[in-house]
Amino acid sequence: MNIRRTSASQTGFTLLELLVAIMVLSMVMTAAFGAVRVGSRSFEAGVLHADEAAEIRAISNTLRRQFRQLLLITRVENRRDFIAFTGDRYRVQFVGPAPDSASGPGYLVYRLTAEPSTETSPIILSFAPFDPGSDGFAMPETSGRELLTDRLSGVSFDYFGARKEREQPAWHTEWPSDSARLPLVVRMQLTSSDQQWPDLLFRVRFEEEQ
Asked: Domain locations in the chain?
């Protein structure tokens, strides 16, 4: 009777070989899942950055149009005439034409506000009908409000120009309400949670024509 003996190479994988194969497979899977996570986070960050950039472009276009159309209107206060414009680090208020779709008076009081909070600085554009017969140009409590963005972590304003006669134009953090001049340029500085955006510069059209 012939007895066939099976060689060790034909008996299959040994336990050690299986353990090594499992370890190698685990390492490959771990690296693959890590790459997927990194790629997913990069994609989400890219989408968030693109959304922020799109919102900033929309804000820039809206405000550039508003400041170009800013009206050279005087207001009466304590029997003195002042330009209807005032601003500080976190708020700008001025008078401009109403949008074509708006009903009622042709002029509106606009207030652009950056409201700092613990995490974000929402940019709010408030607007209300302008009454040229009233003292000052205060914003009524019933004003409309539009949220331009709430993605930014920091927003501030600066103003370039001469606030008084015989004064050299310079950058200022405030433009007082008793000034008889408009600023030449309004600068808006933006910061998000992960980067510093380029400054937005808005030229005031009617000051150019004075």
From this structure: 52-208
